[in-house]
Amino acid sequence: RRFGGSAGDCVFTLRDGAKLEMRSLPQFDRNLKFIMDQLGDDVPEESGYPDAPARDFLQKVASGEEPPVELPPLEESAVESPTA
Question: How many helices (H) and strands (E) are present in the chain, helices listed first?
Answer without folding.
Answer: 3, 2
